[in-house]
Every structure is written in C-alpha cells, then in structure tokens.
Amino acid sequence: MTVTFNYTIIAAKDRHESARFFRELLEVAEAPSWGPFVNVMLDGGVLLQFAEPPVEIQMQHYAFLVDDELFDRAYARLVERGIEHWADPQTTRPGEINHEHGGRGVYFKDPAGHAIELITRPYL
Q: With a threshold of 0.90, does the pTM exceed it?
C-alpha cells in the first residue's frame, strides 16, 4: 500500500463557519459530518474535519495547492470580502501575492486565526 494523506482535524472557534469558509474559498462540496466534526472533502478524498476544542486554539499553518483558475477565483473572493492577505509568511507585503517557485501564492488567516497559504505550484 502506498502512503496517502487521509484527514486532519482543524481546531475552530465555530466549526460550521470554518467549514463554510473553506467550502466557499476552495469550491469544494460539503461532506457527511458526524459527532463533533463538520467535514469538508478535498480532491483525492482528503478530509478536513473542523471541531471546537475546549482549549485555546493555537495557530497552525495549512497550505493548499490549487490550479491557476481556482487561485484567481479564490483570490478575488479574498479581496471582495476584505480579507487581509500577504505575499509572504512574515506579513511584510500586505495586499499582494507572490510569484515564487514558478507560480503564485498568497497568505491569509481563516476564521479561527490559522495561517492559510494558497499556492499554484508545489515547492518541490
């Protein structure tokens, strides 16, 4: 059997709001949910499970590889919604995207405060 990434649990302040944010941004369908999880299914069967932990949420970094067309639409949604974004993880280039690794990238925060990165080319 080969190794593939199956799922991750993402801490959320409001699991429904976070799941909706990712569904709309990444244009993915709602997945069946159960127990404390609201689920979003990405291509390849990767499941994002949003849950509300009973502890203070620590910021995590999640990067999503998207095609150029989805990047354009997602970036337009970020701008249209007034979501602060940067071209770099140090947040020194506000309101910009980068053109690194032969593609484009952008950094922003999700509703729970996690650092999210959209890229159009993989780093390796």
A: yes
